[in-house]
Amino acid sequence: MCSHPLPPKDKNENKNDKDMKTTKKLTLLVSLLTSAIWTNAQENFTLTISTSTDSKVDRCIIAVLSEDKENIVRSDTLDLQGHYVQLTRHLDKAAEGMLAFLQSERSSMAAMASMAQYMVFVPGEKLEIRGDGTSWEIGGSTFYQQVGEVKSQLNALEKTYKEKLNSYSEALEAAEADKEALQTEMHKVYTDFRTQYVQTITEYAWQHPDAEGTVVWIPYAANQSEAVIAALSDRVRNESRVSPIIQRAIKENAEKKARQEATEAAKSKITEGAEAPDFTLKDIHGRNLTLSSLRGKHVVLDFWGSWCGWCIKGMPRMKEYYAKYAGKFEILGIDCNDTEEKWMKAVAEHELPWRHVYNPKQGTVPQTYAVQGFPTKFVIDPEGRIAKIFVGESEDFYNYLDEVLK
Predict the structure, then answer these.
(1) CA dihedral (266, 271, 274, 280) positive or negative
(2) Are 127 and 137 in contact (CB under 8 A)?
(3) Is the pLDDT score of 70 beyond 90?
(4) How high is the pLDDT of residue 132?
């Protein structure tokens, strides 16, 4: 079989091929650059804050939290003295965080002046906040417009509630005031306000099932958070940018419910005279410490946390009694709802000389002892039985120690 060679290309045809290849390369490069620019734009979150000239708020702290919400992974402090500021940050995915607005005369994050707002920061979205230091409006791109629609309704409820609260407070100051009746009415006003607050969030979720911005209000729905999640569409719950956050909320709700059920189930067993349930937890040195190893003397189980103001307030009195009856009893501090770092820091900072153990996030000791408030103290007798239970800081606890340890 004969083969016929292809005719040679002329010079002009070779030049045209080169030009076409060059054009294709340039087109591809432009396409890649455009794609990269668009991708980066989509991954940038922008925050804009505008305050009125008479606003006393002069700083905003924006904090991005870790997925377990135990730690801050990034924070920025914005100067609001010029009444306008803008921040742009790169985000790979939607993240939970907090916005805290502070006044210069206040000392720290612990003394938040006007608002500590849970927030979700979303790549490619713009959050705009406007306010005078006492009331805030939220807007921006689509996601934050949805957040703002709920915020506006809640602002109206809060305004009405504060007006009523002020009127009752003024009435209480009157000499002839029926204080008990007014306080009962104030409690009813608060209960009604909370009911309307949660109902506003729930109704918005049912009316806007495809609104991703509703995710911001799930924690504020309290015991109705499951209803809010159920109202959202399958896409928002399972296939949207905020789906991981919603799924974590679902998991947290399930864990909270399990803890509550365990606490309720334990109530009948945790009574004075009953045997104290044994447990083993890690102590401050990382060693296992078992409650039953302390038998032979009175033991005080102190359920506390570094975040608990009343717990910390009672520490000086606890230290006084620990020294007063040195060797006659033992205190075992059981830290709850803390990170190990915060627990250890609090023990060192407050110079707490007794034994300490750490109840991890998934720990069950507080549920086993039906603990529902902090601080809660159990006095265990030398035979390992529950002798007395004290909830909150009370002088009765110290009077009891005097009675049994003298």
Answers:
(1) positive
(2) no
(3) no
(4) 82
**In the 8-state DSSP scheme, what is residue 111?**
G
What is the residue type of 392? Answer: G
In the chain, CATH 3.40.30.10 sits at 280-405
pLDDT over 90 at 107, yes or no: no
pTM over 0.85: no
Where are the domain boundaries for CATH 2.60.40.4150 in the chain?
43-140
Superfamily of domain covering 280-405: Glutaredoxin (3.40.30.10)
Q: Are 276 and 386 in contact (CB under 8 A)?
A: yes
**Strand order through the sheet with 126-131:** 84-90, 44-51, 126-131, 136-140
Residue ranges of the alpha helices (H) in 208-288? 225-231, 234-238, 243-267
User: How confident is the model over 248-294, as pLDDT tens digits?
Assistant: 999 999 998 999 999 999 999 999 999 999 999 999 999 999 999 99
Bridge-based pairing of strands 72-79 and 115-121 is unpaired
Q: What is the pLDDT of residues 308-352, one digit of tens each?
A: 999 999 999 999 999 999 999 999 999 999 989 999 999 999 999
Which superfamily is assigned to 43-140 in CATH?
Type VI secretion system, lipoprotein SciN (2.60.40.4150)
The whole-angstrom separation of Cα 154 and Cα 162 is 12
**Residue of 64, 74, 59 whose CA lies nearest to 108:** 59
